[in-house]
Specification:
Layout lengths: L10 H19 L4 H22 L6 H8 L9 H18 L10 H12 L19 E2 L6 E3 L7 H14 L5 H15 L6 H15 L10 H6 L2 H13 L5 H36 L5 H13 L4 H8 L3 H13 L3 E5 L7 E5 L1
Antiparallel strand pairs: 1-2, 3-4
């Protein structure tokens, strides 16, 4: 029997889809500088990689994840956690190759994503890129209670074949809903021994990327799930409790994406203001180092001499000279860090 998902488009789903489309239109129309977009994409990639792996049990903090993804060596962290994080970034880079492409979402692509995710880490014992040959279970991480028993291993190949055929043939369903349905159905089949949750979220993102809903790669849907885990898990379980009706899951899925879009639009508007401010300041006459520092100030609000050295890649003496010049030009002013900390830092006038 071919895969035929059951759901209805409720007013809640419809409203969220309209709002998502509105932000999509905003992002298509707005003129944001490439360097600002690149900076936002970098931050989004860090957040998505951190939160998706965190959902699955990694113990890294966001700051540790950021440092690792920026190539810094961090002491006192699990090497498995570090590897899983780096693998997730590699998998995100892999699916980014399919932005706007018409290639079908094949089982081969899904297997490759899984292989990248679990290579060299805990999941490697789960036969990377190959469907499971044994029964697996979804258990409550706290109580160890079995909360879901996936289909038999023998059924996985044909379930995946029917599922991927549906993904590539559906034309009368919004790509956003296809992405949500795909995320649930993949987790429901649970085709691999380990790494199914991460693969499901990447599959959903891949579908959005391929169908023109990449939103300039600025959304971090796993952040929404990670901060709302009880409802995330409950929304998935509700499908099984309602005889495989996916409506409540799709309401949760599109609402999460809608909230992400609202944040992106807010950030986009802030960037427009920030860029306008930067362009006005640049007319005063700044060198390349100073431009980088002013951009940092606009985003962060404050800057120390050490920050300047890092941002502008220069020695301390050069940083001090550049900062003094910016003070003379009435671009910035020096302040004590706080009432109890006299360390000098700089803010924009």
């Amino acid at each position: 029997m071919a895969f035929n998902p059951k759901f209805i488009i409720t007013p809640k789903i419809n409203k969220a889809l309209v709002e998502i489309e509105r932000v999509r239109g905003f992002l298509d129309a707005v003129k944001l500088k490439d360097d600002w977009i690149a900076d936002m994409q970098k931050k989004a990639l860090i957040l998505e990689s951190h939160h998706s792996t965190h959902i699955e049990g990694t113990a890294l903090s966001l700051e540790q994840a950021r440092n690792i993804l920026e190539g810094k060596k961090i002491k006192g962290v699990s090497r498995d956690d570090e590897k899983e994080l780096l693998n997730y970034k590699k998998a995100m880079d892999f699916i980014s190759k399919y932005l706007g492409k018409d290639d079908p979402v094949s089982e081969g692509i899904i297997r490759e994503v899984h292989k990248i995710l679990v290579k060299g880490v805990r999941g490697e014992n789960a036969d990377p890129g190959n469907y499971r040959k044994i029964q697996n279970y979804v258990v409550n991480s706290r109580t160890r209670e079995v909360i879901y028993t996936p289909p038999k291993a023998l059924d996985v190949p044909y379930l995946m074949r029917e599922f991927t055929e549906w993904m590539n043939k559906t034309e009368d369903v919004s790509p956003i809903l296809v992405a949500g349905i795909a995320q649930f159905q993949f987790v429901h089949i649970h085709p691999f021994i380990d790494g199914n949750g991460r693969t499901a979220r990447l599959l959903s993102t891949l579908i959005l990327y391929k169908t023109g809903y990449d939103f300039k790669r600025l959304f971090t849907i796993s952040e929404y799930y990670d901060k709302d885990r009880p409802n995330y898990y409950q929304s998935i379980q509700n499908v099984r409790k309602s005889k495989m009706d996916m409506t409540t899951w799709l309401e949760y899925f599109v609402d999460g994406l809608r909230s992400q879009m609202a944040e992106i639009q807010t950030k986009g508007k802030q960037l427009i203001k920030q860029d306008s401010r930067l362009q006005k300041i640049k007319k005063i006459g700044l060198n390349e180092r100073q431009e980088k520092a002013v951009k940092h100030l606009i985003i962060k609000g404050a800057l120390s001499v050490n920050d300047y050295q890092s941002v502008a890649s220069c020695i301390r003496r050069t940083a001090q000279r550049d900062l003094e010049d910016l003070v003379k030009k009435n671009v910035i002013k020096a302040m004590a860090k706080s009432a109890t900390d006299p360390t000098k830092h700089y803010v924009l006038l």
